[in-house]
Amino acid sequence: MTIDAPTLSAWLARRESADARSRAPELATHAAALTRTPRVVHDLGSGTGGMMRWLAPVLGGTQTWVLHDWDAALLAEAAAAPPDGVTVRTHVADLAGLDAADLAGASLVTASALLDVLDRRQLEAIVSASMSAGVPVYVTLSVTGRVDLDPPHAADRALETAFNAHQRRAHGDGRRLLGPDAVEVAADLFRAGGWSLRTAEAPWDLGGGDRALVEEWLDGWIDAACAQDPTLTDSGAAHRARRRAQLRDGALRVRVAHRDLLAWPP
Fold it and tell me: What's the average model confidence in pLDDT over 152-159?
């Protein structure tokens, strides 16, 4: 199912604050130290520009951001109000076609909440292009499959398993998404190329102040799990009602595991 740009834009806006406080700051600091001047950052799967708004102040100084995405409407939104000191260019393309020429002049490649929605061919294209260009790569908020809800319930693990299978599903065109395996696949590809890398945990920790985000995330999590395993439909509906009631009462906390990765050439 393709999500329309307005719906995706609203989701990205809702999650931006949680994303900003979840990324591992030590990797951002290291990425900034690796980024040579002039600072030209190529951001892949940019959406509405959340990564740019978060990372540009960390990098500091005058910067050029080249935003790559499949959706021209999202890119137009991202480019409309860049941070101070940032010049923006946009590039509408499928990342499977990315090559070193697309990254000419780059001093850093970034992405956020992207790897797990790619297939292996797309990820290999990104890694190959970055390695050929010799550009450090900093990717954040790749899901790793673990979800912990407090208070816990026996239904959580069955939904988690089905959701992760949905994230790894095959499309009609034969593509199979990497889902929660993506960050490890990326790490293996960089290591095989002789690159150095660091990873860090970057979980969403969501509580009462994130009610709208938790509600939307919960719906998506349960809907995807039930689509993957229809035998969960009835128990999933009961679980949704249970968790929504806890959320309304301020009694629900959610931790969604993510991992950040930084890779750089030898």
Answer: 97
